[in-house]
Amino acid sequence: MRETSSAANATLYQIIPSEICFSCDVCCRFLEADSPLAPIFTEVETERVKAYGADPTLFRPQTDGKSAQIQLKSHKDFYICPFFEPETSHCTIYPIRPLDCQLYPFALMFNEDGNEVVLGVDTLCPFGEAHLETEAFQRHIRQVIDYVESETVTAQIAANWSLIGDYQDTVKIVHTLVQLTDATPTLNT
Ligand code: SF4
Questions:
Q1: In which element (H, E) is residue 141 found?
Q2: How far is the C-alpha of 15 from the C-alpha of 141, rounded, in Å?
């Protein structure tokens, strides 16, 4: 499904066809109730989703003092995002889902040494894993880099730096985000 982002003036496209996402069982589902991979909403995104009617108690404040992580809910023998509709595999807030979700299967994280912010592709996403080396996906990677490195988006992420996750070896690093590394408060104190 192709979607225009509201996060900035630049445009972020989802390269994965929606029919593939709807038939997959990776996204929006988590193994632990307090999974660190649960989506993080920036301050603006949190207010937008609350205004849409979301329960304010679902948002757990993060250490950056701005962003919030969503409280997952139990479903069968795993946990799901409360905005996920398991019967249809649809996101009920799709047009206003957070940047964290818009980016997926891309992930923002610190490198293994913890001294740089990098962009990676989550190899747990079957489409990302299978198409990573294709010309179309490599072209898409460059577009996502341009998007994340735009001044507006870099500033937005730096202000909500809890969006930047810990290093995961299942995420293949595709780019070092130099400007974001310079703008991230925890790396420059
Ligand atoms: S906000 Fe939507 S896309 Fe993001 S994890 Fe929840 S259901 Fe999935």
A1: helix 135-148
A2: 10
If one counts every other C-beta atom within 10 angstroms of the C-beta of residue 29, the result is 18
For residues 126 and 24, the answer to whether their CB atoms sit within 8 Å is yes
Segments making up each domain of the chain, as ranges: 18-187
Determine the angle formed by the axes of helices 135-148 and 151-159, rounding to 10 degrees. 70
pTM of the predicted model as reported, rounded to 2 decimal places: 0.92
Q: Please identify, by atom number, the ligand 1 atom nearest to the C-alpha of residue 90.
A: 7
| % of the chain exceeding 90 in pLDDT | 88
Q: Is residue 81 within 6 Å of ligand 1 at its C-beta?
A: yes
Q: Is 39 in the pocket of ligand 1 (CB under 6 A)?
A: yes
Q: What is the pLDDT of residue 13?
A: 84
- CA 29 / ligand 1 centre spacing (Å): 9
The DSSP H or E segment spanning 183 is: helix 178-183
CA distance 26 to 68: 22
CA distance 164 to 110: 7
Question: ω before 105 within 30° of 0 (cis)?
Answer: yes
